[in-house]
Amino acid sequence: MRRFDYQRVRDPADAIHAAAALKAPAAETEWPAQYLAGGTNLVDYMRLDVVTPRRLVDINDLQARFGEIDATEKGLRLGALARMSTVADHPAVRRDYPVIADSLRLAASGQIRNMASLGGNVLQRTRCNYFRDVSYAHCNKRAPGSGCAALEGVNRKHAVLGVSDACIATYPGDFAQALVALDAAVDVAGPGGARTLRFEDLHRAPGDTPEVETNLGPGDLILGFTVPAGAWTRRSLYLKVRDRESYDFALASAAVAIDLEGDVVHEARIALGGVATKPWRAHAAEAVLKGRALDAAAARAAGEAAFDGARTRTQNAFKPELGRRVLARALMQAREMEV
Predict the structure, then answer these.
(1) What is the DSSP string of 178-225?
(2) Alpha helices (H) in 36-109, listed in sequence order
């Protein structure tokens, strides 16, 4: 781990100033200042020398203001500094937004969930081996223009949706899939003021610039998330398939939320994990289901639509079929939920 400056702040304006004050040289792809909350992903990559900030801005003293869990008839408000375990265990979240509780409970070990913040969780970096190991020269996400070693290398866990010739790294998170499925919004403060984004617009597909992962700018600070109330939130769940049931990242996962009128789908919300380069909303699958009786054939058709256009490599060619089956199973399980 390299030397860095450490600054603890007690006000969001001070945090933004401290983070934005350092200017990055043109040749650097990483912002020179990073926010520190739980640190479960950031500190890991600092130890690996993948991320080398010159300043850490500790924002944990902001938790009293931005660690709230507020459930009302209009929806759910989650502060960015709320801890994963606290949200997963909250009675209103478990009752009215089970897909969120599921995604947090299945995301990590208990110790990590106790430390990790919601804001940090949605910004976690990929687990691609070629990104994590600086001895590999060819990683466009870490060294733009160097190439993507995963294209012809070890790519069993890599993405099949949203990929480009520059990067096929998988977005590793779980909670983000629930937010995407539920049409959440994210509140951001930064040097240019405050703004609200659709959560679906927070992350970027790699395209030709995989090193640019989000639509946040230097010094931007996530303050919280708003999930609107809907008829589909109670009939929702997160299903995750992984190599190790105890603790691992998804090979394929599905966040589903559906509103049924009898057996007919009135509205459906679907997001996919473990198979895409960013939190992935499956709009085509939702369109297939709307107005249709939810049975095995409809669930399979939704899976086919979700993975239309998937691009596979040698080792991850199994993922579209696995993803279709995971989505179909999630939909059928949601149909049987008592709400």
Answers:
(1) HHHHTT-EEEEEETTEEEEEEGGGTB---TT-TT--BS--TT-EEEEE
(2) 42-47, 63-66, 84-88, 91-96, 98-105
Rg (CA), the chain: 20
How many angstroms separate the CA atoms of 268 and 173, rounded?
Answer: 21
Bridge-based pairing state of the strands 33-36 and 236-241 = unpaired
The whole-angstrom separation of Cα 176 and Cα 183 is 11
Q: Which amino acid is at 89?
A: D
CA distances from 244 to 106, 108, 114, 251, 309 (A): 11, 12, 21, 10, 28
For residue range 215-257, list pLDDT tens digits in order. 999 999 999 999 999 999 999 999 999 999 888 999 999 999 9
What does the block give as tokens for 159? 């993405």
Task: Tell whether pTM > 0.85.
Answer: yes
Residue 145 makes CB contacts below 8 A (sequence gap 6+) with none
281: phi then psi, degrees, rounded to nearest 5: -85, 125
pLDDT in tens, 19-74: 998 876 655 567 899 999 999 999 999 999 999 999 999 999 999 999 999 999 99
Question: Dihedral, CA atoms, 155, 164, 128, 271, nearest 10 degrees?
Answer: -100
Retrieve residue 299's tokens: 């669930």
Helix (H, G, I), strand (E, B) or coil at 167: strand
- The CB density around residue 94, as the number of other CB atoms within 10 Å, is 15
Q: Are 237 and 249 in contact (CB under 8 A)?
A: no
d(CA 216, CA 202): 7
